[in-house]
Amino acid sequence: MLKPLPIDEVERIAELARLDLTDEEKTLFSIQLAEILSYAKKIQKVNTSEVPPTAHALESQLALRSDTTKPSLKRVQVLTNAPEPALDAGLFKVPKVIS
Amino acid sequence: MFSSWTAEQIREAVVCGKVSATEVCRDFLDRITNYDDSLNAFNTVTAERALVQAAQIDDSRNAKSAKTSLLGVPIAIKDNICTKGIETTASSHILKGFIPPYNATVISKLEKEGAVLIGKTNCDEFAMGSSNEYSALGPTRNPWDQERIPGGSSGGSAVAVAAHMSPVALGSDTGGSIRFPASMCGVIGLKPTYGRVSRYGLIAFASSLDQIGPFARTVRDTALILRALSGQDPNDSTSANEPVPDFFAALTGDIRNARIGIPRSILAQGVDEDVTARFNDALEVIENRGAKLIDIDLPNAPHVVPVYYLIATAEASSNLARYDGVGYGYRASLNSEDTLTAMYDRTRNLGFGSEVKRRIMLGTYVLSAGYYDAYYLKAQQVRTLIQRDYETALEHVDAIAMPTSPTPAFKIGEKTNDPMKMYLVDIFTVSVNLAGLPALSLPCGFTRDRLPVGFQLIGNRFDEATLLKLSDAYEQDTNWGNTTPPLT
């Protein structure tokens, strides 16, 4: 059987991804990610010397527009979707950041 | 009775006053009431709004509205496309209750043409999946066999059209999410060229691959919707400044001497016997119409699935960073001493489903220090080689034909425990997104178990017209879109 990713490696990735995984999820992903990565590794054998990377399907086109202001959404429209809006203050509420 | 009509027939009848948009709308809404409890194709049915819109169309029929191309035509929209005032969830718990304050450009364009939005369709969460099983709102069922998957991720849209709950629908295709469910459900699905259709208001999954496109039962309806969607949009800097041709002018039925490339070597591996048989039947029809079949080679075809999953998950991990419990949707319940990061971590873990988390983890891994070059950069380089394969092949042929899926629809639950198995069903679809090309999947018959089979035509950039031309000619001799699934 394939060697699973070390749990501390899974935890490091989960921290970067901001996911509070359960222990069961960590174990499951340690196995599944190892399987997927081992399959994906086969592309490392492809000769890509002097092959440029493609980041986009279309040749890069510089999309420019004139620098003019346009109306945007009203603040209240944007705040209405927030789980904890402070409509009067025009703010999103979040847990305390500075103690 | 209208539910068997095409969009073109509906529009024509509404424009000349033979039927009212309201009658048409009611008929489709009745179909949804009758069949969608079991099929689960719709997340939201916008019955009231649709009837108001239809009544407005009926009340203000005039010379100006007669010029619109979709007057009174109901349309179902995948639930990852923003609709102003209508809940848009991408079938994710984390976006539950999100009511967009704006319309996606495609929605504004459709409504300007007189289309009537009848509902938001079920999909894999954030369009990540090939079976519609990874929806927070439960799986959608295939109308041809309700024990089977409809394909994903735009499964709800494919089912809505296949079961005549809507004449046409919109989906999005990042690695096959329009074409794959179209082939599983026996309808037409078109992924336009990257840049052909604005992505403004499409909930982003993998921005270098995503593209919105239509589902329909006829090639003409497909052309009708594509025409309405196409064109550059100042709100999407990746939409292309390319002229939009008259797609209907291409539908002449004359495909004599058209050159169709067949990648024989990739078809030799692991394609279901019935799928191969139906695909060969389709080639025979096209050949009998005077097209020429030419063998082509796509040497990097074995690499397409790993390259796709490395690039798509990397982009997804970045795009989905915005779901943090602050701006919209769901926030996990907190204790008074919880920190901001605890709020992020818990909201995201409870708000996202398993497949989305798996992809965020994989994408974060391949972008993280120490692995970037070996996985992500390497995948981008092989992406270049895959693109070149297609460019070379398409210098010698007008289109490339291959099955859309290696198998017909599989059973619900068959692959959910094995992500690799699920990813491998995308083997024929993902390369088109990596190369940015247009591709159209159309039905080509049934397996012995009466499951639909589809094949796809892949074309040059911005040459959807050739795909529509070939498909239209094929359809004139076959017309599989006219077959209706057995619903009770």
> What gross morphology of chain A would you assign?
flat
Radius of gyration of chain B: 21 Å
Write down the CATH topology of the domain at 7-45 in chain A: Histone, subunit A
Distance between the termini of chain B: 16 Å
Task: Figure out the total of helices of chain A.
Answer: 3
User: How many strands, what sense, and barrel or not for the largest sheet of chain A?
Assistant: 2 strands, antiparallel
The name of the CATH topology of chain B is Amidase signature (AS) enzymes
Low-confidence stretches of chain B: none
Report the structural category of chain A: mainly alpha
Largest interface: A-B, 48 and 72 residues
Give the name of the CATH architecture of chain B: Alpha-Beta Complex
**Highest-level CATH class of the domain at 7-45 in chain A:** Mainly Alpha
The CATH superfamily of chain B is identified as Amidase signature (AS) domain
Within the largest sheet of chain A, what's the order of strands?
1-2
Total number of beta strands of chain A: 2
Distance between the termini of chain A: 48 Å
Beta content of chain A: under 5%
Q: What's the β-strand tally of chain B?
A: 11
Written overview of the protein:
Chain A has 99 residues and is mostly helical. Chain A has a domain at 7-45: Orthogonal Bundle (Histone, subunit A). Chain A has helices at 7-16, 23-40, 75-79; strands at 85-86, 91-92. With 488 residues, chain B is an alpha/beta fold. Chain B has a single domain (2-260, 396-482), classed as Amidase signature (AS) enzymes, CATH 3.90.1300.10. Chain B is 39% helix and 12% strand. Chain B has 16 helices and 11 strands. Chain B has helices at 7-15, 21-39, 47-59, 105-112, 155-162, 179-185, 219-229, 264-267, 273-288, 304-319, 340-351, 354-367, 372-396, 419-424, 430-435, 464-477, and strands spanning 42-45, 74-78, 116-121, 168-172, 188-191, 212-216, 259-262, 292-295, 399-403, 439-446, 452-459. In chain B, helix 5 (155-162) packs parallel to helix 6 (179-185), helix 7 (219-229) packs antiparallel against helix 16 and helix 10 packs across helix 12 (354-367). The radius of gyration of chain B is 21 Å and the shape is globular. The model of chain B has no long low-confidence stretch (mean pLDDT 96). The interface between A and B is large, with 48 and 72 residues.
